[in-house]
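Dear colleagues,

As part of the handover before I leave the project, I'm documenting each prediction I ran so the next person doesn't have to rerun anything. This entry is a single chain, and its sequence is reproduced below.
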Amino acid sequence: MQSNGVEGNLLRGTLDFLLLASLEHGPLYGLRIIQDVQNRTGGHFNFKEGTLYPALHRLEKRGLIHAEIRPSDVGGPPRKYYHLTDTGLTELERQRDAQRAHAQALRPYLEFA
């Protein structure tokens, strides 16, 4: 994560939402989650494993995601895949609504730059 000043604060406030949304369409392992977020945000959000795994563990502890070990599809060591729980899907929808409301509230300020 590039956490400098305002951008770091924005990522911290958005990280859980990004991770939950990344898992919305199916289970992913750590590197794929990072790649998904980078790809879907055009590289705007770029974080490292040192940011990712504590956040994933926090979400798992809250019951929003579940992890399972699966064999690697490329012959390497097994990988830990994360997927949304029903509670996680409900939380994603709640956070999505909150993010939309936040963006809508900021719109007048962003349009008059």
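The chain has a mean pLDDT of 89. The beta strands are 28-29, 65-70, 79-84.

All the best with the project,
I.
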